[in-house]
Amino acid sequence: MNHILRLSAIIRKNMRNILRSKSSSAAILLGPLLIILIVGVVFNSSGDPVIGIVSSDSSAPYEQSLADSFIILEYTSSDACSQDVRRGVINGCVVFLPGRASLIVDPTQSAVYYPLLEKITSRLDAQTGLIREGLSEEVLSALSTARVNLYSDASVSKNISASLTSLQRDLAVLRDSSGSVFTSISLVSPQRFLSLVDSVVDAQNEYRSLAFSLHSAFDELASSQGDNSSREVANEFLSSLQRVDNGSIDDLRSIAVSLERTAQSVSEIEFRQQELYTQANILGASLSSTRVLVDALQSSLEETQSVLFVNISVSELSDPLLTVVEPVSVPDDISTLFPSFLVLLIMFTSLLLASQLVISERSSRAYFRNFITPTPDWLFVLSMYATTLLVVLIQVILLSVVSSFFISFSLSEHLFTTSILLFSIITFFSFLGVLMGYLFNTRESVLLSAITVSAILLLVSDVVLPIHSLPGLIEFFVQANPFVLSNQLLIGALVFQFSLSELIAYLFVLWLYAIMLFALIMIVQRVARVQYFESRKTALRVSSFLQEGEVPEGRELLVFGKSINSKKSLISLLESISDDAYEQFADHSRNVFADWIRDVYKDDQLSRALRNKSRKGAISTLKQQL
Amino acid sequence: MGKDILRLDSVVKVLGEKVVLYDISLDVRQGEILGVIGSSGSGKTTLLRTMIGFLVPEKGHVLVRSNVLSGLQHQMYASVFEHGPLVKQVFGFASQHPSIYLNLTVEENIEYFASLYGLSQDSWKKTADLLLKLMDLSHARKSVAKEMSGGMQRRLDIACAMIHKPRILILDEPTADLDPFLRRNIWDMIHRIAEQGTTIIVSSHSLSDIETICDRVAILHKGRLLSIDSPQNIKKQFITSEKISVQTYPGAYTKLVSGFSDDAIIDMHQEGQELVITTIDVESTIQHLIDVIRASNEKLTSIRVLSGTLDEAFLQLTEARQ
């Protein structure tokens, strides 16, 4: 309870000190308002930037498009335009050349550089887009014509392909037919026919002899039987055989001659046919490859045709990939930036205020008196933190109220989560500020260190560096930057509406930092105090008497009018008194001897051992210890 | 005077590379006003800060009588370094430069330091009324400290040092940089505080003031305690000669001096209209002087004994040590 009273007294004193300084109170109250004012002006500014233009023959439409968003100054040369950019007369310069445009901007003006670049390129891109659309329209129209032509070409090629197929088929039929003809012809060759004729002649001769034999036989038979009919039959047979023999043989011979001639002709034809056949094969192969080509042409034409038949719009052709940015849940720029502004405000205010509070206290006349009061050191540290917390919370509330009116952004929507996060963030940066205040000994060095630390935290953050493109280890350190953590916490809560449980990992790390800082502060505070008031040498408490066994004068134990100045003399005393006398000083509720050992010898173990001991037990314990 | 309330045993204190206090042993008696005198850099402030346990000596002990600390009655003395919070309640300390917040009012300063001592509002308000009356600051309760005179700031500082009713009040150069009127004012106030039973340890360059108000004086020189005794005893011990200032009419001192012979006289010289005689035996010299004046045509108009001051004793002592 006493500590709470003390804490509130120190906080009251700090607040009075701050508020009675006009500049401090003005900074506390006007700081947040100033930030909102600046933010409002920046985001609602209607003033157009001034750019210079060096024209070319084809730049008229581009200049027209830029004139909507910029104040244009005409330049005749790029050097003059560039010079004015360097001087800061104009914000940027666009030099139009045939087929290209050069942008001259000043990268040292980082606040203007990227917005200007973005604005100019977007305007030029818009104009380029219009021109591209016109060109695309022309391209599409040409394609349309080509598509029609291709359609007719495809039909022609299809017909050619069909004709070739038919021709190839006919050729195959012809080849097959001629083949069978020649096969048949080869079967009736003249030599064979002649041998057949010879065989027929032989057979005829055999028949003839047989007929004669048969005629003779019939003659004999007719003679023997007297039957003339058999003879007649035999004669008939013989004469018919004679007829056949005469006619057929001649015919066969003339056929053979004809065949001979035919064979020669066939041989000639065969030769021709062989040639033809070879030619046909060559032609067939040519037809095949021609057909393959024609088929390929056909399919290519069909493919092209099918592609051309797809509906392509002008916008698709001019912008094949339309990029549309869809913010996750952010309605406008200022709301996205508000958490970062808040963290910036908290970081700078907490660091500067806490460090200045500490150094003001350390350099105040009353610093010494604070230390000689029975108020523990940690309470002063806590009071500095609590004062900073209070002031920064006032600023955040002011900022929140003002921002809810002017930029429609309120912290009250997720009050619980936001409060926890703000409390944690302010705690960390306040402790850091307190540490700065104790680390350095002058107001100037404290101020400089606080600003430097803030600047480093800001620079090594995602506000400036593209974290995800950094090498692994550096990215890890940047991610572990308390400013980055704080930023992510507030963005998570305020922009993406994450719950506290979703942010707990970041919060845990931040609190870990805060606890480490508090421990560091306590060490640094002690060192700073010794350095400030005493010397660089750590003070040593002299306790040589403990080794010697006798307590110094004045630390004796007074019992029964005797002065006990050592453990030995205590044993002697205990041996000399009765148990009743002993119990006057040592019972269950108190033990003067144990207290004395604890306070003078700082020997808690022996002191505990002596408690609840009888006189003899105490003597025994002391003797054992000695 | 009562028993000792504070004891220093063989205290050695080193600051940086310099030994500031050499083997200091002294006791402070209950209810007395102990003056600590010494030239600049003699170690007065270090000694006072060591007494309250703010600086820890490299060697020696600073002990406070246990009966002024609650809960430590079984011991005769307690170390100021081992019972921090209890010991801090015993001491009040007003340093050379007022340890107050200049942006706060008189009342706010008192309230703040009272809170640091864990006093309730009822408790400190009564004490504050008495203190402000004692310090003659009742009319300035609502005045902001930085708008007050140096003397008022000094008195406020002492009031802050006394808000918890300390048994021992330590004042480090309480009249430094103040005009004679304010110095007188402060010394009167210290006297009034002592009358209320508070033990006071005060350091000052103004030896004449110390001499008149202190019961005992400790003389520090280059970190060593040269003497600690009553001012009278110190003077008696260290001042070997006194001065007699004589004025006669018509003032023919040359003639007077020529007829004057005394073995006790060390020096005689004229200072303006007066003849100043330094002697080791005032009584015999005065007797002899009156006889010489009667025998001459001179008429005695005034005779004063300029008794030895603490300043002289201090100078004698320190010069002897040099």
Explain this structure:
Chain A is mainly alpha-helical. Chain A has four domains: 2-23 and 332-533; 50-136, 3-Layer(aba) Sandwich (D-Maltodextrin-Binding Protein, domain 2), CATH 3.40.190; 153-316, Orthogonal Bundle (Helix Hairpins), CATH 1.10.287; 544-625, no CATH class. Helix content of chain A is 75%, strand content 4%. Chain A has 22 helices and six strands. In chain A, the strands form two sheets. In chain A, strands 2-1-3-4 form a four-stranded mixed sheet, sandwiched between helices. A two-stranded antiparallel sheet of chain A has the order 5-6. In chain A, helix 9 runs antiparallel to helix 11 (377-406) and helix 15 (482-495) packs antiparallel against helix 16. The two termini of chain A are 43 Å apart. Chain B has two domains: 4-237, P-loop containing nucleotide triphosphate hydrolases (Rossmann fold, 3-Layer(aba) Sandwich), CATH 3.40.50.300; 239-321, Alpha-Beta Plaits. In chain B, a hairpin with a 2-residue loop joins strand 9 and strand 10 (224-229). In chain B, 46% of the residues are buried. In chain B, the strands form three sheets. In chain B, strands 6-7-8-3-9-10 form a six-stranded mixed sheet, sandwiched between helices. In chain B, strands 2-1-4-5 form a four-stranded antiparallel sheet, covered by helices on one side. A four-stranded antiparallel sheet of chain B has the order 12-13-11-14, with helices on one face. The mean pLDDT of chain B is 84. Chain B has helices at 44-51, 84-90, 106-116, 121-134, 150-162, 180-195, 207-213, 231-238, 253-258, 282-295, 310-321, and strands spanning 4-15, 18-29, 33-37, 59-65, 77-79, 91-94, 168-172, 199-204, 216-221, 224-229, 242-249, 265-271, 274-279, 299-306. The chains are: A mainly alpha (626), B alpha/beta (322).
